[in-house]
Amino acid sequence: MKKLFTTIAISSTLLFSATASADWNGLYVGAHVGHAENDVSGVFDSFGSSPVPDLGKLEDDETVYGGQIGYNFQHNNMVYGIELNYTDADMEESLIDGESNIQEFETEDFWSIRGRVGWLLNDHWLVYGTAGAASMDAELRVEQDENNSTPDKLSFDDTALVLGFGVERMFDNNLSLRAEALWMDFDESKNLNVPAVLDDADTGDNIDIGEVWSINLGISYNF
What's the pLDDT tens digit per position in 62-110? Predict the structure, then answer.
């Protein structure tokens, strides 16, 4: 047991005290693919339909993809920088209420600008945390079956705090691979009683846009 603890202690010392020789400084661009899930709740047409449509059924999870561009600075074993990130989500879910009307919520895409701060475990492995601001483009569509009209649409453009963490591996050919988890807290409640936009809306109708989680795998080229 004593030898085991000694081995772990020596290995940890060697791992975390490794001198960084890979150059992480500079511009990088890349692409990512992953999985995202949104958190939606609320009610619509609360006086006209029975049962009342539960907008929580509009939650969705989908495969997402996008790109990133950023700039790193390296000081010994510390790497820090800034990144602009775009993700095409196309998360779309719908429900049919008691009046055969269709409510559909689509999360179209995400943007984020984030700082990254990380620590090199050795020459090529980086673990990091990230924080910044995110925006989401989304749309609620309501199609009324009784008059077969063009769907009413209400658009959302919300901002949120984004936090995350990841691990990245730099290769000798300037390519790096990463795995990253992000949490976006939109925490927005929208009043849907906007008759000029949503014809079938009632007093008290609302939609709550909560958290969004995403887990991504990415590749970047480091200049």
Answer: 899 999 999 999 999 999 999 999 999 988 877 777 767 787 888 889 9
Residues spanned by the domain of 200: 25-222
Residue 210: pLDDT band (50, 70, 90) is: confident
- Residue 10, pLDDT above cutoff 50: no
Domain count, the chain: 1
Identify the CATH number of the domain in which residue 127 sits: 2.40.160.20
Half-sphere exposure of 31 (CA within 13 A, CB side): 4
Residue 190 buriedness (CB in 10 A; 0-12 / 13-18 / 19+): middle
pTM: 0.79
Are 171 and 180 a contacting pair, CB within 8 Å?
A: no
- Asked whether residue 8 is assigned to any structural domain, the reply reads no
Nearest-5° Cα angle at 51, 50 to 54: 130
In this structure, the dihedral spanned by the alpha carbons of residues 102, 188, 196 and 43, taken in order and rounded to 10 degrees, is: 40
